[in-house]
Amino acid sequence: MDHTNPFDVGWLDPNLAPVLLAIIVLAVAGTTVLFGCGVVAYLRRRSQRYLLITVVLGLLVGRSITGLGTVFGLVPMTVHHLVEHSFDFTIAVLVLYAVYRSGSDADRTGFESEGD
């Protein structure tokens, strides 16, 4: 798989290539901006919850970049599926953990600090 032109890969309809490329480029840009906002928020709050969300946003950036690499033929489809589905699972686990940790004050255990 040595393609470098997204309009010339076998699995992608040439008519849909510009649409797919535009969507993935927007996803990379959007998730990168969100990740930057997450880093700023984490640096201000310094809590584990903000760190978890920032990590999730970073994984979304990596997921989008993997998709872009696949469109350009730099990432084989098998690697694409392994990386993206692993990221999906990790994102789901981290978001559920962040939600679990954000219970009411009565539900909190001794594991958390006052500012968390």
Give a verbal description of the structure.
The protein is mostly helical and 116 residues long. 67% of the residues lie in helices and 0% in strands. It contains three helices and no strands. The protein has helices at residues 17-45, 48-71, 77-101. Helix 1 (17-45) packs antiparallel against helix 2 and helix 2 (48-71) packs antiparallel against helix 3. The chain is elongated and about 50 Å long. The model has no long low-confidence stretch (mean pLDDT 83).
> What coarse outline follows from CA principal-axis ratios?
elongated
Approximately how much beta-strand content do the residues carry?
under 5%
Structural class: mainly alpha
Helicity level: 55-70%
Number of helices: 3
Order of helices and strands: HHH
Distance between the termini: 47 Å
- How can the largest sheet be summarized? none
Quick take:
The chain has 116 residues and is mainly alpha-helical.
Would you spell out the secondary-structure blueprint of this structure?
Elements (H helix, E strand, L loop, with lengths): L16 H29 L2 H24 L5 H25 L15
Helix pairs in contact: 1-2, 2-3
Keyword list:
elongated, 67% helix, mainly alpha, 3 helices, 116 residues
